[in-house]
């Protein structure tokens, strides 16, 4: 297993995003587009890419609960980036750098060439969301509530996103 991964001129440690501040665009403040790629190095040693122009509605939390758990998190960055990653995983647009490229030391290009679709099954998408939230220092109780929410109620969204 690799303990750090060099990308964008610095080392990512397992459980780390390449940035905590993502550049996004929106027309309705409910649906967002990622304006630059963001990488996440998982605890399992996989390097994921949230690709430029990826789409998200952030955390799909029912509106009556927004006062307690807003879709973007309390400060706009708390779990918004994690929700982006989860939405892209459900949509099957989350990318992963092939493990054989990692071992061979193949340089990572700035565009999406060389990356492949992660094509994670739904349980792995949900677990990745939980992992990313904990990596972003989301309090464990909140991370667990959101994880259980998608675990119990996310099948419809997953099926629609993969259709």
Short description:
The protein is 33% helix and 17% strand. The protein has helices at 80-90, 99-104, 122-135, 140-153, 155-162, and strands at 5-7, 10-12, 16-17, 24-26, 32-34, 38-41, 47-50, 55-56, 95-96, 116-117. The protein has a five-stranded antiparallel β-sheet with strand order 3-6-7-9-10, covered by helices on one side. A three-stranded antiparallel β-sheet has the order 4-5-8, with helices on one face. A two-stranded antiparallel ribbon has the order 1-2.
Question: Strands, helices and their partners?
Answer:
Elements: E1 5-7, E2 10-12, E3 16-17, E4 24-26, E5 32-34, E6 38-41, E7 47-50, E8 55-56, H1 80-90, E9 95-96, H2 99-104, E10 116-117, H3 122-135, H4 140-153, H5 155-162
Antiparallel strand pairs: 1-2, 3-6, 4-5, 5-8, 6-7, 7-9, 9-10
Helix pairs in contact: 1-3, 3-4
Order of helices and strands: EEEEEEEEHEHEHHH
Distance between the termini: 34 Å
**In DSSP terms, counting alpha (H) and pi (I) runs of 4 or more, how many helices?**
5
Structural class: alpha+beta
Low-confidence stretches: none
Radius of gyration: 15 Å
Described by strand count, sense and barrel closure, the largest sheet is: 5 strands, antiparallel
Mean pLDDT comes to 84
DSSP strand content: 15-25%
Largest sheet, order of strands side by side? 3-6-7-9-10
The backbone outline, from C-alpha atoms, is globular
């Amino acid at each position: 297993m690799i303990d750090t991964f060099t990308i964008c001129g610095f080392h990512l440690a397992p459980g780390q995003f390449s940035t905590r501040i993502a550049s996004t665009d929106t027309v309705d403040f409910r649906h967002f587009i990622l304006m630059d790629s963001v990488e996440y190095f998982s605890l399992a040693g996989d390097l994921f890419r949230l690709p430029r122009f990826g789409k998200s509605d952030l955390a799909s939390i029912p509106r009556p609960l927004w006062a307690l758990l807003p879709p973007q998190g309390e400060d706009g960055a708390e779990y918004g980036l994690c929700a982006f990653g989860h939405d892209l995983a459900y949509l099957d647009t989350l990318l992963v750098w092939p493990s054989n490229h990692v071992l061979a030391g193949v340089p990572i290009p700035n565009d999406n060439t060389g990356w492949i679709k992660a094509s994670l099954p739904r349980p792995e998408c949900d677990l990745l969301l939980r992992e990313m939230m904990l990596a972003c220092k989301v309090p464990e109780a909140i991370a667990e509530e959101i994880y259980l929410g998608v675990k119990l109620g996310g099948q419809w969204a997953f099926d629609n996103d993969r259709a």
